[in-house]
Write a sequence for this structure.
C-alpha cells in the first residue's frame, strides 16, 4: 500500500523528511470560506511566525552555547550569576512582543463576537450522536446523521475521501446571506465546528450560544463534533452545503411540502409489512448505536430489546418511552427527531423482529396512535 | 560528616525494620520517597500501556482493536493516571527524598502523616483501576469529566471514580501540609528563605497551590456525587443547574494543577544545569520570583480552557491577556537557564542531556501555548490535536523529562551506585527522538482539523497518525530501558562517591552515597556549602 511504504520511508529518514509528502493542507490550518475565517487564519499565521522566530532564536542560541562552552582543557567557567540590566531588558522585550500580539487578536475577537440577528437564523441542537437543524423563520427542520457505512468503519469496504465526514442530509444555506446559528444541546455537551467558517461553539444543554457566517461562494464544508460526548463522539460529522438563493428557496419549499405529506401519511391505514420495512431502516439509523443490530443492547447501560417485557407486552409504555425518553438514562425523546410514521414504524419493527412477535402480543402501532398520544398531551 | 555517622550509634537511632512492615509502617522520608517513586514508575507503565492501546487504535483509519466505548475508557484513565498517578506522586517522591536533605533536616516535619499520605494513594488507584472489572466499565468521560457526561450520562462506576479522586486529593493536601511545615520549620541554621535551593523553593510554592486547589476539585466531585445520587441539580440544566459551572470549577482547579506538574520540574532542572555548567544559577532571585508569579497568575487564567463555551467578550479578552502574561515569567526562566550555561564549562551526562532537552522542548510547548492563548485563533485550535501536542510537549519532554533527569542525577546518591552512563545516554537519545516523532506531528493533524478524543478519523490524517503511533511505540519501549537501567543500578552499579558530580552544590552531596538511614540528626552548618 502506498501509504505504508511512504510511512516506512519517513521513519527511516527521520523527523523532518515527511514534510515532503504532505500537502500544505495536511499540516496547517486553511484560510477557509468566509472573511472572518480568513482573518483568523491571518492572525494564526502572524502569531505562528512570531513564535517561529522566537523559537529559532532561542534554540539557535542554545545550540551555540552548547557547542561553544562545552568543557575544554584549561578553560575555567565564568562566575557571574546575575545581571539586573539584562533581566530587565528581556522582561520588557517579552512584554512588548505580547502587546504586539494582543492588538490584532483583540480586533479579530471583536469581529467574531457579533450576535446580531441574521437574515436567516438556524437552530442547531446537538444530540447523542447527531445534529438537528431547524430553520426558525420557515419552521422546517431535520436531523443529520453520519452516512458512512459500518462496513467501511470495520474495514470491510474501501474508505473514500470523505470517510466519517459525510452525512445523510447536509445543512443547506444560501450564499451571500448573513446567517446566524443558535447552538444548543439536548443531552450532553457537544461542540459544533466547521473549520472553513472558523466557528466552534459548544452546544450546551440549557444554553443557547451563537455564531454567524457569510459565505460568498457555493461549496461543501465539512466539520466534526469537538467536545467528547460519549462513545460515538467521533461519529457525528457536520456537512454544510452553500447554494444559490434560488436553490435554497426551492429546498425550503420542498421541506415544507414534505411536512404536509407527512401529516397526510399519518392518517393513512398502514399494513404491518410496510411499517416493518420503514421501521427497520429507522432502527438502523437511530437505535443500533445503543441497542445494537441484534437488539441485544449493551447492558446495564443500554437495555436489550429482545425479550424485553415492555417491547413484548407493554405497547403503551413503549410509545411513552419513545416520546418522552427515560429520565436519568441515555434514552432520549424521539418525539421531535422522528415523524409519527417513523416512530410507529420503529416500534412496530422492534415488536416484530428477533422473535419478539412470537414471544409477545405482537401488536403493531399505527402512526395515528402516535398522533393521538401527542394530542392527548396537549 | 563525622557527627552524622556517629549519631547512628545512638540508642534512639536504628536501621530500617525487616520485611514488609518496614515499608508499611515506615515514617522515614527516604523510604517513603522511594515508595512514591516506585509507585509512580509502576503507574507510568500502566498509563503508558493505555497510551499504547490508544495509538494502536489510531494506527490506521477504521476500527482497529478496541470499541469506541473502551477507547474512551483508555483516554480517560490514561489522563487520570498520568496526571494523578505518575507526575504528581513522582514529584512528591523527589520532595520526600530531597527536601530534608537539601535543607539539612533529619526528616519530614510530620512523619506519620507522610506515611498516611503515601499509603492512601495505592488505595485510590486500586479503586480507580478496579472499575475496569465492574459492570458498565471504567470512567469514560475524559480526564476533565465535564458534566453532564460525567453525571447523568456516566457509567455507574463514576461513584468509585469520585471516591478515588477524593482520596488522591486528601493525599496531596496532606503531603503539601507536610512539605510546607518542613520547609518553614526545619531549615539548617543560616538557611534563609532566599538561600534555599531552587527545588525547595519550587515545591514550597507548589504545595501552596495544591492546598488552594485540591479542595476545589473535591468540591466539584462532591457536587457531582450529589447530582448523581441525592437529587440535586448543580450541573443539570433541566433542574435549573448550570453545566458550564462545572467547567469553571474544574479549571479553577485544573489550571493551577497544570503548574503543580511543572514548577517542581523547574527546580530540578535548575540544579542540574547549574551542576553540569559548573557555574552558579543565573538570576536566583528572579527564578524565585518567576515561579511565584507563575503560581499567582495560574489563579486568573482558568477560562482560557473554555474560550468556546460562549463567555461574554470581556471574559474572553481578560483571560486572553492574563494568559499571555504567563509568557513573561516563563520566558525569564528559559533565558536564565541559557545564561547559566553561557560561558560555563559544559559536560553532557545523562541528567544534563535530559535537562537540555527539557529546556528546548518545553520552549516549543510554551510557544504553542502562546498561540493557544490567542482567543480568536483558539476557536480553531480548541479540542484538536494541536492542544494534545501542546500539553504533551509540556508534560512529557517537560515534566517527565525533568523527572528522568532528576532520577539520573540523584540515583547515585539514593542507591550508592552509579547508573550505566552508556545505557543512560542510549535511553536519552531513544526518548528524545521518539518523543518528537510522537508529539510533533500532532501539531500538524491538529491544525489540519483532527479533533481530539476520537477513536477513528478521516483519511487525510492517516499518514501522520501512523507516524505518531510508531513514535509512541518506540517511546514506550524506551521507558522499559529506563526500568532496566534503574534495576541494574540498584543491584550492581559502580560504587558512587559522596559528591557524585564534580562541583555539585548542596547539603545532599555532603553525606555518603547512599546516605545513612537517618541524616542530619544535628543540623549541618551553611559553612559546609561554601567549599
Amino acid at each position: 500500500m502506498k501509504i505504508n511504504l511512504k510511512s516506512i520511508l519517513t521513519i527511516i529518514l527521520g523527523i523532518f523528511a515527511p514534510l515532503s509528502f504532505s500537502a500544505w493542507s495536511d499540516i496547517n490550518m486553511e484560510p477557509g470560506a468566509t472573511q472572518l475565517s480568513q482573518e483568523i487564519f491571518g492572525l494564526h499565521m502572524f502569531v505562528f511566525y512570531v513564535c517561529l522566530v522566537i523559537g529559532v532564536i532561542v534554540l539557535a542560541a542554545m545550540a551555540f552555547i552548547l557547542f561553544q562552552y562545552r568543557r575544554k582543557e584549561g578553560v575555567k567557567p565564568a562566575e557571574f550569576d546575575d545581571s539586573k540590566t539584562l533581566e530587565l531588558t528581556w522582561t520588557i522585550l517579552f512584554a512588548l512582543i505580547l502587546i504586539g500580539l494582543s492588538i490584532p487578536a483583540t480586533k479579530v475577537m471583536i469581529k467574531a463576537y457579533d450576535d446580531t440577528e441574521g437574515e436567516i437564523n438556524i437552530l442547531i441542537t446537538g444530540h447523542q450522536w447527531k445534529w438537528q437543524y431547524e430553520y426558525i423563520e420557515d419552521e422546517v427542520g431535520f436531523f443529520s446523521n453520519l452516512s458512512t457505512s459500518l462496513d467501511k468503519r470495520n474495514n470491510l469496504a474501501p474508505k473514500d475521501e470523505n470517510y466519517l465526514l459525510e452525512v445523510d442530509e447536509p445543512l443547506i444555506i444560501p450564499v451571500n446571506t448573513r446567517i446566524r446559528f443558535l447552538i444548543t444541546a439536548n443531552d450532553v455537551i457537544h461542540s459544533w465546528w466547521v473549520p472553513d467558517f472558523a466557528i466552534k461553539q459548544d452546544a450546551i444543554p440549557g444554553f443557547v450560544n451563537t455564531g454567524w457566517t457569510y459565505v460568498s461562494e457555493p461549496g461543501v464544508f465539512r466539520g466534526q463534533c469537538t467536545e467528547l460526548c460519549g462513545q460515538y463522539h467521533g461519529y457525528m460529522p457536520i456537512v454544510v452545503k452553500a447554494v444559490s438563493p434560488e436553490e435554497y428557496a426551492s429546498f425550503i419549499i420542498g421541506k415544507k411540502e414534505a411536512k404536509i405529506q407527512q401529516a397526510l401519511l399519518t392518517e393513512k391505514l398502514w399494513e404491518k409489512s410496510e411499517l416493518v420495512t420503514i421501521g427497520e431502516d429507522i432502527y438502523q439509523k437511530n437505535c443500533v448505536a445503543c441497542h445494537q443490530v441484534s437488539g441485544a443492547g449493551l447492558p446495564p447501560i443500554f437495555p436489550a430489546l429482545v425479550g424485553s417485557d415492555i417491547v413484548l407486552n407493554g405497547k403503551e409504555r413503549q410509545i411513552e418511552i419513545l416520546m418522552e425518553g427515560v429520565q436519568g438514562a441515555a434514552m432520549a425523546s424521539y418525539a421531535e427527531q422522528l415523524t409519527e410514521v417513523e416512530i410507529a414504524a420503529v416500534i412496530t419493527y422492534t415488536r416484530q423482529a428477533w422473535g419478539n412477535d412470537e414471544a409477545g402480543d405482537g401488536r403493531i402501532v399505527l402512526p395515528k396512535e402516535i398522533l393521538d398520544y401527542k394530542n392527548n398531551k396537549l | 560528616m563525622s557527627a552524622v555517622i556517629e549519631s547512628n550509634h545512638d540508642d534512639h537511632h536504628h536501621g530500617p525494620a525487616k520485611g514488609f512492615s518496614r515499608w508499611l509502617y515506615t515514617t522515614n522520608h527516604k523510604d517513603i520517597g522511594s515508595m512514591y517513586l516506585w509507585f509512580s514508575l509502576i503507574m507510568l507503565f500502566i498509563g503508558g500501556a493505555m497510551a499504547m492501546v490508544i495509538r494502536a487504535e489510531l494506527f490506521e483509519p477504521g476500527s482497529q482493536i478496541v470499541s469506541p466505548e473502551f477507547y474512551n475508557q483508555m483516554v480517560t484513565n490514561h489522563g487520570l493516571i498520568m496526571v494523578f498517578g505518575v507526575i504528581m506522586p513522582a514529584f512528591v517522591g523527589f520532595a520526600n527524598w530531597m527536601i530534608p536533605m537539601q535543607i539539612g533536616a533529619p526528616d519530614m516535619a510530620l512523619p506519620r502523616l507522610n506515611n498516611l499520605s503515601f499509603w492512601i494513594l495505592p488505595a485510590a488507584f486500586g479503586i480507580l483501576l478496579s472499575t475496569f472489572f465492574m459492570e458498565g466499565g471504567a470512567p469514560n468521560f475524559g480526564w476533565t469529566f465535564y458534566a453532564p457526561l460525567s453525571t447523568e450520562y456516566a457509567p455507574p462506576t463514576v461513584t468509585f471514580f469520585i471516591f478515588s479522586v477524593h482520596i488522591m486529593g486528601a493525599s496531596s493536601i496532606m503531603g503539601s501540609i507536610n512539605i510546607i511545615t518542613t520547609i518553614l520549620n526545619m531549615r539548617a541554621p543560616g538557611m534563609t528563605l532566599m538561600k534555599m535551593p531552587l527545588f525547595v523553593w519550587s515545591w514550597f510554592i507548589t504545595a501552596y497551590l495544591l492546598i488552594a486547589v485540591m479542595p476545589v476539585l473535591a468540591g466539584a466531585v462532591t457536587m457531582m456525587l450529589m447530582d448523581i445520587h441525592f437529587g440535586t441539580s448543580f450541573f443539570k440544566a433541566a433542574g435549573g443547574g448550570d453545566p458550564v459551572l462545572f467547567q469553571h470549577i474544574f479549571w479553577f482547579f485544573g489550571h493551577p494543577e497544570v503548574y503543580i506538574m511543572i514548577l517542581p520540574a523547574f527546580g530540578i532542572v535548575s540544579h542540574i544545569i547549574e551542576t553540569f555548567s559548573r557555574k552558579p544559577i543565573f538570576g536566583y532571585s528572579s527564578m524565585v520570583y518567576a515561579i511565584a508569579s507563575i503560581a499567582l497568575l495560574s489563579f486568573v487564567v482558568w477560562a482560557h480552557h473554555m474560550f468556546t463555551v460562549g463567555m461574554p467578550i470581556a471574559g474572553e479578552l481578560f483571560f486572553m491577556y492574563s494568559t499571555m502574561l504567563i509568557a513573561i515569567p516563563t520566558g525569564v526562566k528559559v533565558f536564565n537557564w541559557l545564561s547559566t550555561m553561557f560561558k560555563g564549562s559544559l559536560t553532557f551526562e545523562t541528567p544534563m542531556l535530559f535537562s537540555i532537552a527539557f529546556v528546548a522542548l518545553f520552549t516549543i510547548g510554551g510557544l504553542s501555548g502562546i498561540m493557544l492563548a490567542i482567543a480568536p485563533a483558539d476557536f480553531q485550535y480548541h479540542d484538536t490535536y494541536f492542544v494534545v501536542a501542546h500539553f504533551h510537549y509540556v508534560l512529557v519532554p517537560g515534566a517527565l523529562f525533568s523527572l528522568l533527569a532528576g532520577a539520573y542525577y540523584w540515583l547515585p546518591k539514593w542507591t550508592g551506585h552509579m547508573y550505566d552512563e552508556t545505557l543512560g545516554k542510549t535511553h536519552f537519545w531513544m526518548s528524545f527522538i521518539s518523543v518528537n516523532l510522537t508529539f510533533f506531528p500532532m501539531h500538524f493533524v491538529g491544525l489540519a482539523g483532527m479533533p481530539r478524543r476520537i477513536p477513528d478519523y478521516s483519511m487525510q490524517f492517516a499518514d501522520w497518525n501512523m507516524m505518531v503511533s510508531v513514535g509512541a511505540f518506540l517511546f514506550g519501549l524506551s521507558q522499559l530501558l529506563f526500568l532496566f537501567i534503574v534495576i541494574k543500578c540498584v543491584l550492581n552499579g559502580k560504587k558512587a562517591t559522596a559528591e557524585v558530580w564534580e562541583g555539585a552544590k548542596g547539603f545532599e552531596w555532603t553525606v555518603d552515597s547512599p546516605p545513612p538511614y537517618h541524616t542530619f540528626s544535628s543540623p549541618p552548618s551553611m559553612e559546609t556549602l561554601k567549599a
Notes: Chain B is about 65% helix and 0% strand.
